[in-house]
Design brief:
0% helix; globular; mainly beta; four-stranded antiparallel sheet
Length: 132
């Protein structure tokens, strides 16, 4: 439905300068997400991570969108990295390696991004974007 996207290996050699995330927020519940994540390098190039309707992990190029209101269903907020996001510890570092995992029926389901000081795993679990 959404094509193969960007090979994650395209991240190797890029310096992570900024991370922007989108989150779903309602009045009654705590913030959930992230829904989307954009990794922005020193040259201003942006790699977008999100999940597809078929529960795959989408990695493509694209700039962060603006937040929006969904009325009674809450709102989607978009902004700089939030506390507790694993990429926060790697700002200013170069991506040294990446690994990808594929599912038989869904395509790419995970990407592991390595930095000199550690790794961040991004995966799609039951349609949710998870970072560890």
């Amino acid at each position: 439905m959404h094509g193969p996207g960007l090979p994650a290996v395209a991240l190797v050699g890029r310096r992570l300068e900024r991370v922007v995330t989108s989150w779903h927020r309602t009045e009654a519940a705590a913030r959930s997400g992230p829904l989307d994540m954009w990794l922005i390098d020193a040259a201003g190039r942006s790699v977008h991570l999100t999940t597809g309707s078929d529960w795959c992990l989408i990695v493509d190029e694209g700039q962060p969108h603006t937040g929006y209101d969904m009325g009674a269903h809450g709102r989607v907020e978009v902004g700089p990295i939030a506390e507790g996001t694993p990429f926060g510890a790697h700002l200013g570092q170069l991506v040294t390696a990446v690994g990808e995992e594929y599912g038989e029926h869904t395509g790419r389901v995970a990407v592991e991004i390595a930095f000199a000081a550690g790794r961040v795993r991004c995966d799609s679990r039951a349609g949710d974007l998870r970072l560890t």
